[in-house]
Amino acid sequence: MRKNLLTTSAAALALLSLVGCSSAGGDAASGGSDQRPEEITISLVPSVEGEDLAEALDPLTEYLSDGLGIDVHGVVANDYAATVEALGADQAQVIITDAGSLYNATEQHDAQLVLRDVRFGATSYSAIAMTNNPDKYCEDEVVTATYGATGDEMSYCNGTETGAEATGEGPAGVEALGKIDSSTPVALQAATSPAGYQYPLVAMQEQGVDTDSLNQVPVEGNNNAVLAVQNGDAEVGFAYWDARSTVTEEAPTVGEDTVVFAYTEMIPNGGVAVSDSLPDDMADELATLMDEYAESSDEAADVMFELVGLSDWTTDTQPEQIARYGEILEQFSE
After folding, report:
1. Extended strands (E) in the chain
2. Is the pTM of this model over 0.85?
3. Class of 124-267 per CATH?
């Protein structure tokens, strides 16, 4: 049985692979003065790989260089924890990273959260609890709603969806999680997965489930969590909303057979944080430029999606969601 062990991303150490310069110039980098630095570096974990990295970074860094009137360089991190390490070591003054790393950057290095990631119009998402046994977990009739990202018709119950178009808004139906017991095969992903492990475990615990005695079915990836339920290897499984759409080719009836009966509380997307060494006016200017980047051109929108898998950034940072994510991480740090 997989135990509740998660090493926080703050403890992870990783090396940086550089694309461009990795150090920042100017007085701001050394003492947080009001003087603008002559150059800054952005650290991020892009969606693209290998030889495409430099090419993918160039349009964004050139756009920011023109807008700020300084040199902006890109640093490619091996993982999200490395972005925090880069910020702490002043190898980067701006990081594009996940929610856990945003929390660690603000807590450990006094970084300023300036932007949140937008995917499909949302800055957060829920984890789904799904089952192949709706008679046990559904307190009302199973209904169908359209998952807008793909147009697939999916099955829901317990008030998770009430309209024709699915919204994925949680929490909803979480009381039904209390029906899980030690005999229930539950598909769970790696302990570092927010939607496949962390938020579901907290939600189950809040409903009185003894998660230490769970009959865990370990799976790798959201698609395999869905398939474990669809194929009967697990009675309940967890994944991001709505991961059922990822397996419709291999399991065409998944939208009918595997029913979502609960949503966890919302899980925040990542975003952008800046070092406290940057002058406040420059941090604001940078945030405005990045917020406007996706709308600046068709090329920018393509780069945005290809580089970090986003449709936009927003200055509505909702820091309370990042703080809550930190609380969730703390529960898995011992």
Report:
1. 16-19, 39-44, 71-77, 94-97, 112-118, 124-125, 127-131, 143-147, 152-156, 185-188, 215-218, 236-240, 259-263, 267-268, 271-274, 312-314
2. no
3. alpha beta
